[in-house]
Amino acid sequence: MDISFRADEALYLQIADHFRRLIAGGKLKPGDRLPAIRELAKKIGLDPGTVSRAYQELEREGTIIGRRGGGSFVSISASEEYLTRQQQERLGSLMERSILEALGLGFSTEEIEAAFILRLANWRERRIQSAPKIQKNVPRNLNDIYFNGSHDLAVELLASHMSTLHPDIHFNTSFTGSMAGLISLVQREADIAGAHLMDQESGEFNIPFVRRIMPGESVVLINLVQRIQGLMLTSGNPKRIKGIGDLRSPDITFVNRQRGSGTRILLDSQLLSLGILPREVKGYEREETTHVAIASAIAQGEADVGLGAESAAISAGLDFIPLIKEKYDLILLQETLIRSQVKKAVAIIQDKSFKKMLSSLSGYDLSETGNTITIDNKHN
């Protein structure tokens, strides 16, 4: 039992909190007996009256039941609901201490939220194979927003911030690639798509693809970020990689994005211009669905290099060689903008506090964030 004689909290309250944590963690279950007061007092070197007061506090709130001459037991009412409440309070306390510590070091609330999302994204990618897919023919909650398309940490930050400001709206994300995102809009399987597709002839992002793939539709493009794409490398760059041309080397292992993603299209274009065949790139066949997954694979030594966003590389502690600056747009049908939930998401993107969060991440240009373009393909 961790008891601090220097802590501001009274000793009996520390003892009571210790048992609350044991119950919340499942180490003490309803009906289990607590140590006898004198036995516990002797063990931790305190007066029995202090332990008795702790037990009285737990009994007063209904956590334990005292039986005269028979000891103290965890209450049957310390059920799943009680455990959930205690766990949430414990989690809240842990988060609050971390937030206060970060604020004390001079970080803004926006920087703290952005850092948390980065760490959570990295943690999640170490434990799952891919992001969940939007399933066809499954009834959707009309109060939620469904996103389908290319991965970017800014999208994860948007989804998290949306849940904070509007907890009644769930921003569902499915990272399937830029092309799949546009197709999902045409098929009405998503409300918003994310894309960063560059047209080779014009050098323009997304608009040429919207015109080709979505004829007869009125479409709105909202710039989320302009970002730097490049090579993510093992820290220290031990293989001395300098550019795409080095991927031909047999001692360099690459990790790829999935087909249809804007990053995969960019890679294939770069390889073609250099006369490098996919079969000459070791690891070309291995596919991941997010930039964070690529960065995680490299950080864990499973590959030497991958193509992805600078923000993901820096968050994973990798080296980075910039190659191109691209526009990442959120794309939606104009008819979708009438929904109040979507209007709230757009308002967040255009809000200064959200842009401040994004500015704490590496590799982003926010000069066009929130700008909109409308393409009326119905009359073209």
The first-level CATH class name of the largest domain: Alpha Beta
Order of helices and strands: HHHEEHHEHEHEHEEHEHEHEHHEE
Instruction: Provide the domain count.
Output: 2
Low-confidence stretches: 128-138
CATH topology of the largest domain: D-Maltodextrin-Binding Protein, domain 2
Helicity level = 40-55%
3D shape: elongated
How many strand units? 12
* Main sheet: strands, sense, barrel: 10 strands, mixed
In the CATH hierarchy, the architecture of the largest domain is: 3-Layer(aba) Sandwich
Estimated share of beta-strand residues: 15-25%
Question: What's the helix count?
Answer: 13
Structural class computed from helices and strand pairing: alpha/beta
Q: Tell me the radius of gyration.
A: 27 Å
Rounded mean pLDDT score: 86
Distance between the termini: 73 Å
